[in-house]
Amino acid sequence: MASPPIFIPDITQTYSKEQLIVPPHYKEDISAVLIPSGLIKNRVEKLTREIYSEYYNKKPHFLYVLEGAFKFFSDIQHFYMELQSSDPAAGPFSFGSVSVSSYKDDKSTGNIEITVSPKLKKISGREVVIIEDIVDSGKTITGYTKPNKEKVPGLLQELEKYKPSSIKVVSLLLKRNSESNGFVPDFIGFSIPNAFVVGYGLDYNEHLRDINHICTISLLGEQKYKDI
Ligand code: IMP
Fold it and tell me: Exposed, middle or buried, 157 (CB in 10 Å: 0-12/13-18/19+)?
């Protein structure tokens, strides 16, 4: 059973970067810490226990979305293996990655590029668990229709071609975006305000992934790493 996401209120409650450990070279690039690393870790451990019990007698195949969900998945598999090692009845899991890109600066480009590896043939008949860093508009996962009526498939449609027996979605973050298409992942770590966030694997034009906390980017950071 999935627990409800932790609700992070609109940007009134953030943590000062002066009170937490933030790499000195990034101090000017972020405005505040939205979710400190300790809270992320504990929530990820809790989500992992829920996923573990959901797939207890099954053999899930985790598919993490590159690049952003790499860190999230790395923590999930660490906690999952800890649970397995203390449980003689535990079953195995397997994993792979899928590459998706759709953002430039802090805006969706409207073009979803999904690169699937030939290894994906192996997900046929498997219980697939997509591991995503953030769901914002929901388009990356479910696709969308262009104004000229052309349908752009999302990750779910691409994966369904390989005939897995089931697909569930785990997302660390769900953004409260009024323009969301309404897609709600099966497991959600945190419900966050409609702001652009970086850190814990999430990037701004490939920068700022290597911060342990989830942070809001500063104006200076936006200018410094703008994709020109
Ligand atoms: P969606 O298609 O609008 O749901 O966006 C999902 C993808 O957009 C994520 O996998 C991220 O790569 C990217 N994204 C959306 N919001 C953010 C953000 O606040 N920070 C970093 N990446 C984001």
Answer: middle
Greatest CA separation found in the chain?
A: 55
Atom 16 of ligand 1: nearest residue by CA position: 136
* pLDDT above 80 (res 12): no
**What is the radius of gyration, based on Cα positions, of the chain?**
18
Q: Is the distance from the beta carbon of residue 171 to the nearest atom of ligand 1 less than 6 Å?
A: no
Three-state secondary-structure class, residue 5:
coil
Residue 129 is encoded by which pair of tokens? 């668990």
pLDDT tens figures, 69-96: 999 999 999 999 999 998 888 889 999 9
Catalytic residues: 136
Mutate-to-test residue for ligand 1 from 72, 102, 222, highest number of ligand atoms within 8 A of CB:
102
pLDDT at residue 110 in the model: 62
Confidence bin at 228 (pLDDT 50/70/90):
low
Q: Give the 3-state secondary structure of residue 177.
A: coil
Which residue matches tokens 């929901």?
Answer: 138
In order of their start, the domains of the chain are 39-192 (3.40.50.2020)
Cβ–ligand 1 contact at 114 (below 6 Å)? no
On the question of pLDDT at 186 being above 80, the answer is yes
CA dihedral sign, ordered 117, 118, 122, 127: positive
- The closest residue, in CA terms, to atom 5 on ligand 1 is 136
Backbone angles phi, psi at 225, to 5 degrees: -105, 20
102 in ligand 1 pocket by Cβ < 6 Å? yes
This prediction's pTM: 0.91
